[in-house]
Amino acid sequence: MRDRAIGIENEYAVVVAEKKDDGQVVFWPPAIHRPVFASPEFLTDFTAHIPPQPTNTNLYTGAPVYQPSIYAWLRNGGLVYMESAGEGTHPEYASPESRRIIDVVRYNKAGEKLICLAFPNCKVFKNNSAPGSGSPVDSELRTMVATYGCHENYLIFGIKDFEDPPFVSSLAPFLATRHIIDGAGCVHCDTGQFYLSQRSRFIETTAHASTTGSRGIINLRPEDHVGSNSHIRRLHLILGDANMMETAIFLKVGATSLVLSMIEDNCAPSFGYQGSWFWPDCLRAINQDLSGKEKLIIFSNGEKFSALEMQWVYCEAAERYLRQTNFESEASEAEAKKTLLIWQKALDALYANDLEWLVGRLDYPTLRYIIDGMAERGFVSIEEKRRIDQNYRKINEGENLSKRISDRLSHTRLLADKDITDAMISPPVDTRAKLRGDFVARLIDKNIRDKGASYSISWTSLRFGDVIEEIADPLCYSGERFKRVFDAIDS
Amino acid sequence: MPERKTRVPPKDKNKETPQDKVPAEDKGKEFKLPVADIMKDVEDAIKDTEQELAANKQSSAQ
């Protein structure tokens, strides 16, 4: 079992709080005609921000469009950028590549704090959906297409074709049932129905290259960010939810990484190639089964599985796999075994509906628990349920409901607050993000950005003046050759 | 088709799901969720949002 580089991208919804001359505060969502800008203080202190691109043209109308574009590389090696979608714009945060699963969690949570700093006059929600309140703000927001983007990226070894039936046959059944452990919960804004997952209803096919239509359980976009390395690829998954709880993020990423290792080593379960629609249909059906026990996966030979049973098949295969595989380090072994333990406990707790274990660890059981609890206190309308849903994902300091619940149930947390604040400015030490983060820090600390120096940063390269250094291998973080580009800054 | 699960769920084994890290004050007794505290947090969060939205409505009306 090999270490891999992993990262998470999260989309955020921001609502701008604007103080009027008469002292009243009004809220409005960002849109192309009314953009939101990242705070200059944030860009100065945390990023190697390069000035935005000039005016773009709307692809559909041909009209000129001002993009409130930022593409700001961070001290921690990650990236904050502004994405336009339909009439709305929203910020996104891509975490730096991490080798340890706990670092994936740490940098994902650090992203919440960074986005709040970047947009200090905003209410910030960890998804790109909209508060639903019936207010003028809400009606405007409801017109936006909210698809709750949270994307995962995994470095993959030795697999060239993500459409290859053996690969799909092993990965798709796991992913199609994964929301039973990592679903973030969702209250439908029109019906009030509670779903396991925010994202399931937007997944239409088993494998597809698109990220905005015909979304696949397995994304095929060939954007590897690994240079000319032919033995490695980046698997980009777009079916995941925007998780709030640390354990949910750990389990989602850790279990997926374990399954990918089993696939790479030919040890994964396989359920045969089932075509394009079978697994998306299962995914959407499972989305409505909050128990996870309904046998909604029905194969042509008559065999039936529930989501929990399917996850058990993979979890038990992982248990066998971990007994026989080798690890790159003791830390890798310890983390893989911890992932397995949490996976087993989660499945057991879901089966037994053990709320004492689930609440504070997994998201949809926590959200459902508080919605049911508030229903007993008279909060029963769709709007009230939606309000709870929104507040669960609100991340402003002091207004962060999921954080309050986590802190009350502190034994469920995997990280200390200081781990997270450190991750806002320090990159992971064991991936190429270390080089990128150090490069950004050097530019900031030497105050080079304001001196007209020419430099550029990407996932795979660093350039200062004429000196370009490739950082194509995500797991490579040290070496003599990288000194050149740092020396160029210092000279 | 892979072998069907062999795992016996804990309820069927009449065995509790283990807690991985029980707070010191709860050692030796079964952990119970602090329901009232959690629901108070939820109520406070909703109240804050209500106030924001009320201000917004008032301002928009003007």
Walk me through the structure.
With about 500 residues, chain A is α+β, with helices and mostly antiparallel strands. Chain A folds into 2 domains: about 5-420, Creatine Kinase, Chain A, domain 2 (2-Layer Sandwich); about 435-490, no CATH class. Chain A has 16 helices and 20 strands. Chain A has helices spanning about 40-45, 100-120, 135-140, 165-175, 180, 245-265, 280-285, 305-325, 330-350, 355-360, 365-375, 380-395, 400-410, 415-420, 435-445, 485-490; strands spanning about 5-10, 15-20, 25-30, 55, 65, 70-75, 80-85, 90-95, 120-125, 150-155, 185, 195, 205-210, 215-220, 230-235, 295-300, 305, 455, 460-465, 465-470. In chain A, helix 8 (about 305-325) runs antiparallel to helix 9. Chain A is globular. The two termini of chain A are about 40 Å apart. Residues about 130-145 of chain A have low confidence and may be disordered. Chain B is built from 1 helix and no strands. The termini of chain B are far apart. With about 60 residues, chain B is mainly alpha-helical. Chain B has one helix at about 35-60. The interface between A and B is large, with 59 and 44 residues.
Secondary-structure element order of chain B, N to C: H
Strand residue percentage of chain A:
15-25%
What overall geometry of chain A do the principal axes of the alpha carbons give?
Answer: globular
DSSP, total strands of chain B: 0
CATH topology of the largest domain in chain A: Creatine Kinase, Chain A, domain 2
The first-to-last residue Cα distance of chain A is: 42 Å
Task: Give the beta-strand count of chain A.
Answer: 20
Q: What level of helicity do the residues of chain A show?
A: 25-40%
Regarding CATH, which class of the largest domain in chain A? Alpha Beta
Strands across the major sheet of chain A, in which order?
6-7-8-1-10-15
User: What is the count of DSSP helices of chain A, taking H or I runs of 4+ residues?
Assistant: 16
- The amount of helix of chain B comes to 40-55%
Termini separation of chain B comes to 66 Å
Structural class of chain B: mainly alpha
Supply Rg of chain A. Answer: 22 Å
Shape by Cα distribution of chain B:
flat
Q: Biggest interface in this structure? A: A-B, 59 and 44 residues
> What portion of residues of chain B belong to β-strands?
under 5%
Report the CATH architecture of the largest domain in chain A: 2-Layer Sandwich
Give the total of domains of chain A.
Answer: 2
